[in-house]
UniProtKB/TrEMBL annotation, chains A, B:
One of its GO terms (molecular function) is DNA binding. CDD domains: HTH_ARSR. InterPro entries: ArsR-like_HTH, HTH_ArsR_DNA-bd_dom, HTH_MetalResp_TranReg, WH-like_DNA-bd_sf, WH_DNA-bd_sf. The keyword Transcription regulation applies. PROSITE patterns: HTH_ARSR_2 (PS50987). PANTHER family: ARSENICAL RESISTANCE OPERON REPRESSOR (PTHR33154:SF18), TRANSCRIPTIONAL REGULATOR, ARSR FAMILY (PTHR33154). This is Helix-turn-helix domain-containing protein. Residues 3-94 form the HTH arsR-type domain.
Amino acid sequence: MDNDFNKYNEAAEMLKILAHPVRLCIVKGLLENGGCNVSHMQECLGAPQSTISQHLQKLRSAGIVTGSRNGLEIKYTVIDERVKVLLPILFNKR
Amino acid sequence: MDNDFNKYNEAAEMLKILAHPVRLCIVKGLLENGGCNVSHMQECLGAPQSTISQHLQKLRSAGIVTGSRNGLEIKYTVIDERVKVLLPILFNKR
DNA sequence: TCATTATATTTATATATTACGATATACAAA
DNA sequence: TTTGTATATCGTAATATATAAATATAATGA
């Protein structure tokens, strides 16, 4: 049953990153709009800049999103394929 | 807006429950075998009884699994439909 | 250069989660 | 009853996570 404990650890790591309302909101917004900068997220979520930035840092270091700078702004996009599949299912209306 | 916020909170709550290697292993095992008792999980996972039982308590109070007693044993099964869909995707090999 | 804007990092503190031994409960059989 | 077995709950120390203010960096334009 537990041949591959790593498998469970990795999956749990990813879920742990997703398992926060602000991060879910960020990721869902990025998926639906194709990308977004930090200032816009701040407005939407009503959280201070440093808080948003720290959540983005987690998403980034987990390989879920990536940011590309364009002048002053940094535009974030979702790059993890599993997340692209999981999120719509998670928010599926039934 | 409040509505949306609830949506993210609820989804995050569910993910947080799943986001633990032992609980993932339990749920995946239950899904694949159709059910299992605590003693068997203990053997498989090599964790003390109270630890397993506390993870089951979390899964139970989140409505992800339910247990039905049969004599001394309690057989657990997964009852959350989203989880039944999400887990196979999470562990899908590509 | 300096000022401004967008984002990241550091630091401190508060809160939540985890693990596990000890103990309690539920049931069955003697 | 009493004993043995399966599972649940309690107490709590160790660890992890969240938040936000303060500060730092990076890019741009005057």
